[in-house]
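Hi! If you just cloned this repository, the fastest way to understand the data is to look at a raw example. We've pasted two of them here, unedited. The first protein comes first, obviously.
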Amino acid sequence: MTATVLRKLVLAGKVLACLAIPLALQATPLNLEGVVVDANGTPVAGARIAVVQGDAVAISDDDGRFVLLTELEALTAEGLAVVVEAPDRPAFEQIIVGTDGEIRLQLPADVASLDEIQVSASYSLDRQNPISDAVLGRDQLLELPHFGDDVFRALSFLPGVGSNDVSSQFTIRGSLRREVGLQIDGIEIFEPYHLKDFQGVFSILDPEMIGTVELLSGGYPSEYGDRLAGVLDIRTQKPSGPRSLELGVSLTNGWINGQGLLAGDRGRWLGSLRRGYLDLVLDLVADDEEETEGDGPQYWDAFGKLEWDLTPTQTLSFHALAADDTFDEQESEVDDFGFPEREVLDTSYGNSYLWGRHQALIGSRGVVETVLSAGRVDRDRRAEGEEFDARSVIRDQRQLDVYELRQDWTLQATERQLIKWGLAARAYDAEYDYQLDFSNGGFTGDRDNNLERRFADDFSSESYSLYAADRLRLGDRLVFELGLRHDRQTLTDEDQTSPRFNAVYDLRRGGILRAAWGRFHQSQRPHELQVEDGETRFFPSEVADHLIIGYQRDLRAFGQRLDLRLDAFDRRVRDPRPRYDNLFDAFTVNPEATVDRIRLAPESSRAQGIELFLGRQDGGRVGWWASYSWSQVDDRIDGRDVPRSNDQTHAFKADLSLRLSPRWRLNLAGTYRTGWPTTAIAAEAVTGSDGEIEIRPLIGPLFAERLDDYHRVDLRASRFVDRRNGNRLEIFVEIQNLYNRENQAGFSVDGRNFVLQPDGSVRYDEIEETWLGIVPSFGVSWRF
């Protein structure tokens, strides 16, 4: 069923993308030339000038001069609104009334440099901590190709991030998926994916709701805890301006979202609703050779936020996020070898979160934030499968309820000292009711021929955390932060203490040096018990030590302003929790009902590497960046270092963004990496106890071989039409895997792979599995 659904999705994209014809609506161009100067009239180089109503952007040259290409539709009754961002100066907005002659944009006299205001602005820059690895502007993120209009897929192009073609879940610097945490507007979100039967194809948050995205891929400060490898911190948009709505459709879903003001500007709202219709799309490309019954995949998600200014110094907000998935399908077909196959899926998944947040200024130097949240994650998974000589029946019902109260304080103690502290209490209630019946009459690998598992239980527990950090500025160049975090979990009766250290040293024109060291713990939550693999007890917390050293600077080369970044990292994990992996096939709907499922219990693990990034990010007509990563991720198993199944020694990623005009945008993103590790397999003929010849598999050293190298290029082309009344039409066409590369995903292994030869030897025939080929997509949205 897995391969069938994916084949249908690819075919549907090819059929429907042909119907997406960009509208060739014309708009009158407007060329504006000018100069940016400071309060003394001195030209300012590297200033960014952006049109508020539109996408036009220009960067001033060494003489402060710029050329801005926009459209007359960007003009309002007041004139043309632009935002100016100069190096080491805060942004400001200016209205250009006349458009004849040269524009002169003069920075205000009272604008101070960041060196002078960095401390006082520390709270507003709280997420820009000393070792923040990647902060993406919303527009930059959405310009990257991201199939299914899923912003998580765009993250896969960042250095150190790993993923596969199907899932929107990702890893950081060779981590496991469970080692990466996700926060949205200050609360942790669990299992935030649609189509979980297929490893989570899409995330549950509308990308139009996203304001900023910060990926912390190691060495993060003490306010973040209980994750070993990294944190994705998403802040939704802050509603502003008049009411606006957007309607849109794409290959995979339709949506409506909007924002607006209440009671003048004291209140603000933001909301979205999306409905996936893959069930309808897949029906359009049904295969006559398959007998299929059921409704197929159906899903929806919704997000809402309401903010209210209680006083000039207090803000109260309420947030809600909900998602639901169902998949009901029965499929029968004959495989390529002539054997009948039957697969049944009847699954339901739910996610819902509700939280309130209160923010208040305490005097002129303090800020306190209080968050109260409640969430529920549930599943009802029923699956049956029959193929060749294997049969399985799964019944899997689980529910998690989680409640949290958290408070964070920030105090500007002096001009050179910022103190942060906070505490949180969280309560969990988890329920399990699981059943597995699995039988295999042929190839078994390390598994029993027959498995029967039953587990039903519930767990209640609490966790508590307390952290404090002191950020100091020594002289004009050095800023460092000392942090300490303490966590306690009642489920395993554990306490952990985690020291953290971050530092930044300004080399002025020579760039910036960064360093971070810290200890990080990750507990096993009540809902993370792997009962599907026979685990019935909880393990102690895992411990990781991070060491990161980085260098960053701006360069001037070939008339362009370039960003250079070099990072070296070392992450060592002690006493990692056992996990389960599939030796040969990296993608399967029911991984516990396979013959190649194995248990891995490393004694320790280590991830180390170097990442180099170079790019032009100054908002010109042509933007580009490229990155190279060398890394090595090993698990220590039975006294030897074994590569992890997602280890990729070399990885190269690049992006080219072309603003062909204010109306047209083209983006090409490519990736290349070393093939992931796999395990060799062979077989021999032996005489059984009954005197008959039997075929016995011979499994080689664990993950000692590698798949072929992986590479692909994705394309996204967008057409924008802005009207004077503020309405905007966007049409995009996207192609994943532009040149249809058949990248290896693994191998399907069972008794059909082995053929007994006349001379008594056994021949092994590979059955190769590949990731997706070329996948077109498209979408249309109208904002009014």
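Ok, and the second one:
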Amino acid sequence: MLLLWGCHREEDATLVRLIETDPSRALDHELIFQTDVVHDWELPGATKSEGPDPNLPLLDRQVDFGAARVQEIEAIVESMPQGTLALRWQTSEHPFSKERQIQLQAEHQNPGPQKLFRFDVASHPLWAGQISGLRLYTDRRIRDSVAPIRARVLSRRVDPEGLEKARTQGWKVNLNREIRNALLAPPGKEIVRNLSVPPGAKLYLGYGLQGGIRQTVEFQVIVRFDNRPERTLFSGLIDGALIPMAGWHDAVIDLGDLVGRTVEIVLLTKTESPLDLATGLPLWANPEIVGRDHRRTLPNVLLISIDTLRADHLSLYGYERLTSPHLDRWAKTQAVVFENAVSQAPSTLPSHISLLTGLNAFRHGVSHDPAPASLETLAEILQRSGYRTLAQTGGGYMHPAYGFAQGFDIYRYWLWGYERLQEFPNGIEAARGWIQSYRDRPFFLFFHTYEVHAPYRARQPFYDLLTGGRKAPADLLWMTTQPAGAEEGFQPRRGTDYRYGSADPSVTTSRTGSTAEAIDLYDSSIAFVDEGLAELWKLLEALDLDDDTLVVLTSDHGEAFGEHDLAGHGYLYDDNLLVPLVISFPGDRYAGHRVERQVRSIDVLPTILDAIGLTPPVDIDGRSLIPLLEQTAESFPTEAWSYAANDNFGTALRINNRDKFIYNDAVWAPIRGQEELYRLDQDPGEVNDLSATAQGVDRLREVVQSTLARQSRGLLIRLANNEITPLTGELGGDWVGQTRIKAPHLPCACLWWSDNDTVRFEVPPRSRYDLILDANPATTGWIRLRTDSGSSDPGWEVERQLTLDELDEPIAFELLNGGWHSSASTNSELGTGVQIRWQRRNPDDGVDLSSAEADLRRQMKALGYVQ
């Protein structure tokens, strides 16, 4: 539902949004359109091309239809958890080519082994003429494991009732890899808002066309008041035939002569000839009226995340190479440097969710799948407080499909692998443009880049400067990943073997690289980033915004270069977990300070809110760092938790910059319950594992196990057996996976991954344990149980299909009086059987967490870890 939303501040400064503040849903095509099937193919026997193309397609079909008749093509494939699927077409006049191609990433499609890909061909500028052939391709490296199932060619028709319903709502709409909060604007349909115009008001808005529109659309803003003739405040034209896929346009309209009047603001689109809405819709984006400048009460916020940047490769942190001269100078005069900042996860998705929510990684529970809308992000908090919220990201695991667009007025992302070398410079250019465009009102700009992420590349002139003129390689340097089978506990490890190749990971050369070469390339990218960020510092200063902008620079995780014979990230050693954290406060408060005390990425959110005068949420794990800087903190957490769930490496508890305990909660026999303990002040390289000999390991294990059991989020499966024979069973379906099943405390080697993608389990007599699954609610699965494992009868005593999004109430299956009984309640103590329920984050967690932290500190003191 659309609404007017006012935010009143000092000096009558007012913000009125003409759209709901954060539509959390993507545009629902099923609501707006009905579809007719033009072609429908079952694909097990699809013909493969025998032509010269080295990329044999999964589908190769001759067709004959006009492009205007078809708006969408669907494909379903199986066994494709990652990689890309590409659709190409030829016409009667043009052969197959990369120009006539749409490419989608499997990671961004629906969960489960079957992936549904929807190619919006109507939006492509070259979808025109008579289509004579279609082909589906996937990456060569995964082609043999992908099984096509079905393809459908669809023609859309507008559902008038659905369109009218959709027109009254706000949506997240993507134009040219930029997502905005938008209103649908069919020609001739007015969007009318009544309001009183505040002092100094300006109307900000964006407008655009979906890519299938091939004619001119006029966008008008009209004002009506006091029964006077209506007046046009703005008129803008977009010719879809001339500039297809042009993206969003912006306008700022001065309402100064309307101040104090009660008016109707009308948004309207027009066309000279009827518009076929099945090809696309005109759109208005983020329309809002901003009154008198309220910058004096709301400083800007700039949050920068340099993906994969380990702190000790910055000269700012003592690195022997001068990789960050601009950052060094800026930090010395304007910022605070935190020398020991710990990331909450060594991979992009969970780490950034922790950064933007202030929650520990096991507590928000996001490892593989998109973040739930129930999580409150920094962008949402700032948006509610009157900020224009903007994001420029590198895509990949920062793709909006993972939930990161939540709370952002504008969310821009790069296609992973698409013109990769241009991602960072183009991102800097976009960020500079936004800062200039929105400098007259408070903004929150989140900037993310993969520039220093593998594959590594030489950035000049920095490579020559850092290496003394060594010849720079022309290709990119990729690292290898060792296969992760059952003997490794499905724990993927990247070795220090490197190979040169192109931007396509499936195309490599015979030339191998070395760790030293990888470091040279990595360092050159850091220096390249340093110079680009200097352009942002200069712009803030030139616009006189540097004293009125809070700037945070950090990373999501680091990168290994041979330490522990590992490369890349996903691990729990400090080369992966210690990240830079540099904060410039408005007015240069605390500038030049260096803080040695251990802090955490989850502390960034409450620090930002505290610095700009907003109260942080009470149920987060992070704490503001300002009391540390002002030396007024009565206490500050001495522990930092890091969780590596999506690679089966477990969790790390880093205590007071002195000790680190690593515990693996994976369920597979080779790695289950593995432990490591390091004394960091004596062994910063984490070489000497003391877990077998040091005192207090049992207590540390209890702390970690109890914390994971209480705070981990996911699907909780409680198994219990009071019988004298084992309880056996199986789990299967989309909800299980080799890295998705954890157990805070597993008393035995009780689970096995079978060849048919099911998990077999056993509960020994007189025992019980809990499993926590990182399961997506959109998936389905099944569970089977049997009490007599020695029986020759292969049948199961309990077999139940489960649809997880319908699991609103807990369910249980229990053996009572010789028979199995099901229940929707788990209140009673479980005897023999299973209980299944969601273990979700809720507001009460804040209370439990507080007492847990106090208990943890007492135990750490008792063990001598905390003074």
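That's it. A detail worth noticing about the second one: The longest strand covers residues 147-158.
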